[in-house]
Write a structure and sequence with these properties.
single chain; 420 residues; mainly alpha; Growth Hormone, Chain: A; 17 helices; 0% strand; globular; MFS_dom; MFS
Length: 420
Amino acid sequence: MKEVEPSQGHGRSVALLFPLSLMLFEFAAYLTNDMIQPGIIDVVREFNADVSLAPASISIYMAGGMVLQWLLGPLSDRIGRRPVLLSGTLLFILSCVATLFTSNMEQYLLTRFIQGTSMCFIATVGYVAVQEAFGEKDAIKMMALITSITLIAPIIGPLAGAAFIQIAHWKGMFALIAILALVALLGLWRTMPETVMRQGTSFSFGGIADDFKQVFRNRCFLAGALTISCAYIPLMAWVAISPVILIDNGGLTSSQYAWTQVPIFVAVILGNLTVVKLVGDNPSDRILWAGAPIQLTGLCLAVLGNLLAPHIWLWSVAGISTYAFGTGMIFPILFRRTLFSSSSPKGTVSATLNIIVLSSIALSIEVGRLVYQYGNKMLFHALGLAAGALSLMFLMRFLQALKVNGSTQPLAPLLEDIQE
């Protein structure tokens, strides 16, 4: 796809307001997970459902994040990023409004599934547009900043959610989130650039299948995608299952639970900000090799702590927080390098990447739920350590493949003059 140069005078709004609007949309999408987590036990009880379904609120959301990947990436390659992302933002708003009218657990999970499709639009379309609009170092910095700011949601979300359910019904959260997403939609409509041109490529299932086959045959890309997948499994499994561990079985209140999540997501933000500081002066490979051992150290701490003192939840939080810092360091770089490790259309590449990542996370949440249900916290964290070890193994193969094959370079970015 050929990229479009923005008109003069539009560059500043693209550089600032487009990423800001995308960040606001992602922030709203995160809040649908993080604000409801302190009250998810209340949701389950209100609908007279089994408490073991509590983690399904996130795993179903993740499943929604996979269902449209195959379509949105190739579609945005053919008709452009802008109309696809705007449509996805509107769908998210409508799904939040629909939550207000749910009357049973099945309906609630259905709205969660639809809300999860927002991740298709954000990661497959929005992130790609950012990567196409900026050069490599600026794109890494921009992605790190976007991730840092949107990760405020997992910090304030549980706290705000815990406070909200003390004064109002939990459904009101989704009304507030819908309003926030509406502001994001207006911002995207005004400022989002179109980074690809329509070139008359026909939309056919055969053409889509051929594009995906080309990406899946790229071993270098697969190694990068599996690195990201395994790197995120411990964090997402903890987010999904920690309410059962700490509230239902651990006896913490919703407010106490919310505070246990703060250091974890602060650590991810600090990791992202470390990338912003280091990426200008250091090769990205060096940053990756610095972050991976920090991940494994944190996961080992969680396992050993729960082996020696399983009744102390502090070991879990300390270990996951340390691991989260390392994850924050590697993700912005890994995403960029994996996306451009294939020469295929970037919407399709991003869709393939997210299918692999989200399916791995959704599966791991269900496996983690069963491991904890029939085992204990130590076994649950051991599963995370195994994922971390696999991530390091795939990282080694990915970097080796990049050296052998050469990293596929992106087309000239739209914004060459972004201010540092």
